[in-house]
Design brief:
single chain; 7-stranded antiparallel beta sheet
Length: 193
């Protein structure tokens, strides 16, 4: 697939597959107007046979359109191969400023001290599409923030830097909120082409 405005794309598979989040696809686009172009709309209304087969066999999905608000370290496509650690949040709007400040000024700098933690981009969701009626989706709010962490190894998730990042007073204060505890995490590896 090649569309004007889509700058990069990569497919991933969950390293610990379960009933949900088996696969992920990430696209970097020049601007969100890409999704309003006739070419993109054509792909949505008249998908290829292969895409149609995937859609027909997908029982649960989340689709996000987001604006990058924080980027530290390497970008997701600068490291190959890499793992993609995805964390999704439904942050109440009253907490957006604090959540984003915590991530940018405390959480990420501590984690990025670990060489296996290569980089992170945080997106504020502008639009999301979640499958309705899928297990566990009833009553869930839409995601407001998605963090894409680039890892050089899954060992980064057990690193001393991550433990330090999770043990701060600021993180502890945020973790008492239900929205923080309800965040969802997955580790994906690049899918062979």
């Amino acid at each position: 697939m090649s569309l004007p405005g889509i700058e990069a794309a990569k497919r991933y598979v969950n390293v610990k597959p379960g009933p949900t989040a088996q696969f992920a696809v990430r696209y970097d686009v020049s601007n969100i107007e890409v999704f309003d172009t006739p070419e993109f709309k054509q792909l949505r209304t008249d998908p290829s046979a292969e895409t149609r087969k995937v859609i027909e066999n997908t029982v649960d999905f989340d689709r996000f359109v987001g604006e990058e608000i924080i980027s530290q370290g390497n970008t997701w496509h600068a490291i190959d191969p890499t793992l993609m650690y995805v964390v999704t949040f439904s942050v109440p709007e009253d907490y957006w400023n604090e959540f984003e400040a915590w991530y940018a000024t405390e959480h990420l700098p501590i984690m990025l001290a670990e060489p296996l933690w290569a980089g992170c981009q945080i997106y504020r969701c502008l639009d999301s599409d979640r499958s309705s009626g899928a297990p566990g989706k009833d009553g869930q709010e839409s995601w407001t923030h998605v963090a894409f962490h680039s890892l050089r190894s899954e060992d980064a998730l057990q690193s001393p830097a991550r433990e330090r990042a999770r043990a701060t007073a600021w993180r502890e204060r945020l973790s008492h909120h239900a929205w923080h505890r309800a965040s969802v995490r997955h580790v994906f590896e690049p899918l062979s082409q």
